[in-house]
């Protein structure tokens, strides 16, 4: 498969923005029938082209087919169709009663914010491009979608399919790298939805601030795992490695490192090693294995560099293949300041950090910026409450990893350094929606008798 990706000419970007604005002003994207039809088209785009899209993702990331189906194609086809079914409910205006003024006619209208810009990263090139778009279409917002240039095959296939299924006067896919995205960011959007790393997140936030454009930042960071010594280490090992093995650890909420009371480190490490042997009996890098590859040689070298500098002990894995294969690798006795804890690993390396006890693990978590997801393995309800009350993060998942992404009915988003704003289900819709309150005052209702019009009466309020 060719990796050549045709970039959208920079001089066309302002024109695209103008076209989408004209479409929005015309009211074309407002009717629910239009939104429903576009959402169903988006669902069809994924379902009818699953083989072509899947082949492109394999060419970019060498992900196993089942992983692509379960994490990219099925959820996107389903969620777009679900959103189409939910439009009546989501968009229904609300009529709050105003205390003491029952005759006032107040309506909370759910109106589209306007024309949106969606910028996506490479690690889930279908899911992270389509998921925010579902929200934009559901809300009645036209959008420019800018997928990652790092997944050239997927971005090219999506660019070919979008105009075949979606209304190009409202939804345009722009391909490009930094110069094209920089140019897009100069334009006055009504919402920017960015998914990617925090460094670019700051660039996006700065550009948006110039136009006071509201933004959603879906960023990354280190997602720590706290393990209660009383928890079953075999179950913990299996569930931690599920989240670390998917997409070879290149997931925003992959477990980054594990904080385990020192007396349980050896038992956990043994369970992790046994699990990896079960998951990949012939080794993860075996051609028949269900294990993906690193996106490109740059990221491969970055991860290799972290491993070379670690002061911890590599107790499993460490093998590489070519310029993109890195075996799942367990490193124990990792201490604060280690290379593996400098930043989000975004690869298949799992550092184990021994701590004195769970309280020290909680203190550790609180010394770092808020994670996208904090994980904890414990059956102790009091400890769960303590972790919920005494830590902060985008989300909190007990006793599994990654599964919070499958709960589409709940909001997903970061907090602080891991981003802000929400997506999934109705929350994606809300992200692109402005709550526009209207008040229609009945002509026979006097708002505050004695106060509204001068001269004010005396003794109107007894306070
Ligand atoms: P990436 O390199 O593909 O970049 C993301 C997007 O930003 C691309 O579309 C790219 O063109 C654009 N971009 C890159 N440099 C830019 C610049 N200087 N100016 C303007 N735009 C620029 O992907 P990435 O950032 O490496 O993605 C991985 C990161 O994304 C990780 O940190 C991961 O945790 C995070 N992530 C977060 C979520 C989430 O939902 N919170 C999901 C997936 C990934």
Automatic annotation (TrEMBL):
All residue ranges annotated as the Aldehyde dehydrogenase domain in the record: 17-437
One cellular component term from this protein's GO annotations in UniProt: cytoplasm
Q: Which Pfam families match?
A: Aldedh (PF00171)
Which BP terms does GO give this entry? aldehyde metabolic process
Q: Which UniProt keywords apply?
A: NAD, Oxidoreductase
Instruction: Indicate yes or no for the key word Repressor.
Output: no
In this protein, the active site sits at 218, 252
For this chain, one GO molecular function annotation is: aldehyde dehydrogenase (NAD+) activity
**What family does this belong to?**
Belongs to the aldehyde dehydrogenase family.
Q: What is this protein called?
A: Aldehyde dehydrogenase
Species annotation: Sistotremastrum suecicum HHB10207 ss-3
Q: What is the lineage of its organism?
A: Eukaryota, Fungi, Dikarya, Basidiomycota, Agaricomycotina
């Amino acid at each position: 498969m060719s990796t050549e990706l045709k970039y959208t000419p920079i001089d066309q970007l302002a024109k695209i923005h103008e076209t989408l604005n004209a479409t929005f002003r015309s009211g074309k994207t407002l009717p629910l029938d239009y939104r429903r039809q576009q959402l169903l088209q988006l669902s069809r785009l994924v379902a009818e082209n699953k083989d072509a899209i899947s082949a492109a993702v394999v060419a970019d990331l060498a992900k196993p087919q089942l992983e692509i189906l379960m994490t990219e194609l099925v959820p996107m086809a389903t969620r777009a169709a679900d959103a189409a079914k939910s439009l009546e409910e989501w968009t229904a205006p609300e009529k709050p009663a105003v205390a003491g003024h029952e005759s006032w006619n107040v309506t909370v209208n759910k109106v589209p914010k306007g024309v949106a810009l969606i910028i996506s990263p490479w690690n889930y090139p279908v899911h992270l491009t389509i998921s925010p778009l579902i929200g934009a279409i559901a809300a009645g917002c036209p959008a420019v979608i800018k997928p990652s240039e790092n997944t050239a095959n997927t971005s090219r296939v999506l660019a070919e399919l979008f105009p075949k299924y979606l209304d190009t006067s409202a939804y345009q896919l722009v391909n490009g790298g930094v110069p094209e995205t920089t140019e897009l960011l100069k334009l006055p959007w009504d919402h920017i939805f960015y998914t990617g790393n925090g460094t670019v997140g700051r660039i996006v936030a700065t550009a948006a601030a110039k136009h006071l454009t509201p933004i959603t930042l879906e960023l990354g960071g280190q997602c720590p795992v706290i393990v209660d010594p009383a928890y079953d280490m075999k179950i913990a090992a299996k569930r931690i490695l599920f989240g670390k093995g998917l997409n070879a650890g290149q997931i925003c909420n992959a477990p980054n490192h594990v904080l385990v009371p020192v007396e349980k480190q050896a038992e956990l490490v043994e369970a992790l090693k046994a699990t990896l042997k079960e998951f990949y009996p012939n080794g993860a890098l075996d051609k028949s294995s269900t294990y993906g590859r690193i996106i490109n040689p740059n990221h491969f070298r970055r991860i290799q560099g972290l491993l070379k500098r670690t002061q911890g002990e590599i107790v499993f894995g460490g093998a590489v293949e070519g310029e993109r294969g890195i075996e799942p690798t367990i490193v124990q006795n990792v201490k604060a300041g280690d290379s593996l804890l400098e930043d989000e690993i975004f690869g298949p390396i799992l550092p184990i950090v021994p701590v004195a006890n769970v309280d020290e693990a909680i203190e550790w978590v609180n010394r770092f910026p808020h994670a996208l997801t904090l994980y904890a393995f414990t059956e102790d309800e009091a400890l769960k409450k303590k972790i919920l009350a005494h830590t902060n993060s985008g989300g909190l998942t007990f006793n599994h990893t990654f599964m919070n992404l499958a709960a589409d009915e709940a909001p997903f988003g970061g907090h602080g350094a891991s981003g802000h704003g929400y997506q999934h289900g109705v929350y994606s819709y809300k992200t692109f929606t402005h709550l526009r309150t209207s008040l229609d005052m009945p002509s026979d209702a006097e708002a505050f008798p004695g106060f509204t019009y001068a001269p004010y009466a005396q003794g109107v309020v007894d306070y």
